[in-house]
Design a protein that fits this description.
This protein has 14 helices and 14 strands. By secondary structure, it is of the alpha+beta class. Strands 1-2-9-7-6-3-5-4 form an eight-stranded antiparallel β-barrel. A five-stranded parallel beta sheet has the order 11-12-10-13-14, sandwiched between helices. Strand 7 and strand 8 form a beta hairpin. Helix 5 packs across helix 9, helix 7 packs across helix 14 and helix 10 crosses helix 13.
Length: 430
């Protein structure tokens, strides 16, 4: 009997429910428990639900992983149109216990009306995917019996290359929650790259279809792997948007007579838009390599003066972890997990300052600026769960960790608090 396929469904409000499909004993009397009632309410009647997933790929096959990520990104706009646009959409991950077979990413689409138009639109969407990998589609159903609701999933299969037909139903049952969120083992390959070569390999896989990838790799390859540090300290200022990073970094650089740098560096600006339109895996690799290019500039500048950096590795990693790990804060990797460790081949700062303000004050500042918001800022604004995950990731970073500073008081008070930290932690300052 094949090992059951397991799924992690992100529930409204940030919870997670785990269930399995194809468990032993389906089709007869069996002891397998019914799934979490929260999942059953989304999978069973009334209404009809569908699982749309892109195939997983082994970690070593980067080209296949990039193709799968691009396929999912291409499908998302179509899922917001027509009858599919009326469906509730929830993040869904497919995985095998123990991690074999690669992580499948996709969505659960819940059609409250259970109309035939939704099914037709999904099958037409599958027909539009002419090249491998093709997404998989499973349709859920249920029936009430003496023991309550029993759930099933019927996969849709292409028979003879011409017609979509439903396969035999498979029982949906409860699955234990894994010790770690199923996306965590995949983070070093898809989001939080542990060294320069891991991020570089992703962009290398993109060069056949993304000219910007080759241009960025040329810049990266000009950066020496061993960066001699100068005698002056390097101070990084981190924080969510509208916490005052721009104001503090400028004032701090002026007070210290320091060079002010940013990550990603200005030299990557011509290609940022191209990478922001790519799936998260590719975009994260680009920003990760931006840190290594910035590190080359930081090393050179630290030979002449102190260096203040507006964001660096911590923000790249915190947003990536919070995005990839579905669910709420409790589903993040625990403190001391290796994913929170600074990459060993990346120039290490002497101090990382994390500016913090209350969610209410941050929203007021954003409204006061009247600036166009980034996609991540939209997510922070719309989801308190996402914001809490980003903040928790910042708090768990270590070696070096973040030193939090309340950025609510006046600019001068915040600057003095940061200068106090700098003097305590950077004895090499003149």
């Amino acid at each position: 009997m094949a090992q059951p396929r397991c799924f992690a469904l992100e529930l409204p409000g940030g919870g997670l429910a785990h269930f399995a499909v194809g468990a032993a004993g389906s089709g007869g009397a069996d002891p397998d428990p019914d799934p979490d009632p929260r999942a059953a309410a989304l999978l069973g009647p009334p209404g009809r639900s569908y699982a749309l997933l892109v195939p997983g790929a082994p970690g070593a096959d980067l080209a296949a992983r990039v193709r799968a990520a691009r396929l999912l990104r291409r499908l998302l706009p179509a899922l917001r149109r027509g009858p599919l646009g009326r469906c509730e959409r929830l993040r869904l991950l497919g995985y095998r216990p123990g991690g074999g077979g690669g992580l499948q990413r996709g969505l659960l689409l819940r059609d409250p009306g259970a109309g035939p138009a939704t099914r037709r639109a999904l099958l037409a969407l599958l027909d539009s995917c002419l090249e491998a990998p093709r997404p998989s589609l499973g349709e859920f159903g249920g029936e009430f019996g003496g023991a309550g609701l029993r759930l099933w999933q019927r996969p849709w299969e292409l028979r003879g290359g011409r017609e979509w037909r439903q396969a035999e139903p498979e029982r949906v049952v409860a699955a234990p929650e894994p010790a770690l969120h199923p996306a965590v083992p995949d983070l070093p390959r898809a989001a939080v790259f542990p060294h320069r070569e891991a991020a570089r390999a992703v962009l290398e896989a993109c060069t056949p279809f993304l000219p910007a990838a080759g241009a960025v790799l040329e810049l990266v390859d000009r950066c020496p792997r061993q960066l001699p540090r100068g005698p002056f300290p390097v101070i990084v200022v981190e924080g969510l948007d509208a916490t005052g990073k721009t104001t503090v970094t400028r004032a701090l650089a002026d007070a210290l007579g320091a060079a002010l740098l940013r990550s990603p560096p200005a030299g990557l600006s011509p290609w940022r838009q191209a990478f922001d339109e790519e799936p998260d895996m590719v975009r994260r690799a680009f920003y990760s390599l931006g840190n290594y290019i910035a590190a080359s500039e930081i090393a050179a500048a630290s030979a002449r003066a102190p260096v203040v950096v507006d964001r660096f590795w911590h923000s790249t990693a915190a947003y990536a972890i919070a995005t990839e790990v579905s669910g709420a804060v409790q589903h993040l990797p625990p403190a001391r997990h290796p994913i929170y460790q600074w990459p060993k081949d990346l120039l290490r700062p002497d101090l990382v300052v994390l500016l913090t303000v209350s969610p209410e004050e941050r929203r007021e500042r954003i409204r006061g600026r009247g600036l166009e918001r980034t996609a991540e800022e939209e997510e922070l604004e719309a989801s308190s769960t996402f914001r809490q995950k980003v903040e928790a990731c910042y708090e768990r970073m270590e070696d070096p960790g973040c030193h939090a500073v309340d950025a609510s008081p006046s600019r001068e008070q915040v600057l003095q608090a940061v200068l106090g930290l700098v003097r305590d932690r950077c004895p090499q300052l003149p």
